[in-house]
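Our collaborator T.R. sent over the components below with a one-line note: 'Predict the complex.' Nothing else. No constraints on interfaces, no templates requested, no preferences about which chain binds where. So this is a plain run: every listed entity goes in together, and whatever single assembly comes back becomes the starting point for the next discussion.
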Amino acid sequence: MTMSSEEGLATALRGDGLSLRLGPFTVRLTTAISSVIAGIASLYAECVCADAPFADFHLRLRPPRGLRRWWRPQVVLDHDGAIPFAPLPYGQALAMFEWGLNWCIGTQAHTFLILHAAVVERAGRAVLLPGPPGAGKSTLCASMVVAGWRLLSDELALLSLDDGMVYPVVRPVSLKNESIAIMRRRAPEAVFSAPMRDTAKGTVVLMKAPAASIAAGTEPSRPAWIVFPRYQAGADTELKPFSKAAAHLRLGEQGLNYSIHGARGFELLADHLDRCDCFTLSYSDLDGALAMMSGLAGLAA
Amino acid sequence: MAPPAASAGHPVALVTSGGLWSLVGPWRHRAWGDEHLIYSEASGDTHQVTAAGVAVMEALAQGPASLAELVRRLGGDADDEAPMVWVAAALAAFDRLGLVERTSP
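Returned assembly:
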């Protein structure tokens, strides 16, 4: 069986599970849900690991038990035999995989300090784009990736506890609502999932990571900049230096496991801030924002 | 009009009250220029403070002290009301943040 073929991949997903190598993690996924099988085949085929002896996370996506599944189809995420979330509508199964995997990494991968931030890289230097939902983080991240930046993650910055590097966990970029049409226009050749409508975040479409980013999926990068994006309709594009102390406080508040690391987390975050320049980026025009980011990295716009 | 009554945690009340001040637990400090952060290992909270606030924490790190002793450690004159009120205000603020505590005389 060729694991990269959709047929083999579907057989594994329906059977004992399919292992995906995602940066430092191996995920074993089992499901018979056709939308997830199609999504994994189109978005994750290069990450399939046929001979993984061990998995960090065992996930199963399946309909909940009981009669309800006949008249109101739903999906639940089973993680090592536990069900950590309420069921979602069946059509949101692929989004549930993404969100469930984020939760697994954020709550269990404590060999990293994990910040809620997109991470992209050019020429060996990474920029972290932290931001709450709605800040325009994923749209900017996706646009930078389409413009040639390497994607490390659109959601989770994995900061090493040991070597000062940020590690990739390359997965699709999660696009929401208006950003879907924007990215379809900017990257018509990119691979997109089917739209998942009426999720808690509105309509969600996953955009496949570029092949080069997937191929470099285990190579860490050195953080050089931390940029807090803020999309505001009509706003001028403005990149302003930002206080490192305020950045520390904001990153700590948004960190997924900052409190777990205690004093070590405080020092580690401060160490990263010692080495990074911090900015805020207000924007409404993506091309202007991209030019700003290119200028920051010393690249021709 | 009469001045407002000083509550137990008010700096003016602290100036006139006794007791020893001490740190609640170990703490960490990092600075970038004139921006300072303090991390309390007791609470797990991070706070942004001024350089003067860091000086108060460092003075208390030498050991528990009365307000007057703390003012002296900071190079002030305990007979002068201004530094006493200033340090008392810092202690009151740090008390609220759970960074310092006062033991009864």
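Summary for T.R.: The interface with chain B takes residues 243-246, 248-249, 252, 259, 262-263, 266-267, 270, 273-274 of chain A (CB under 8 Å).
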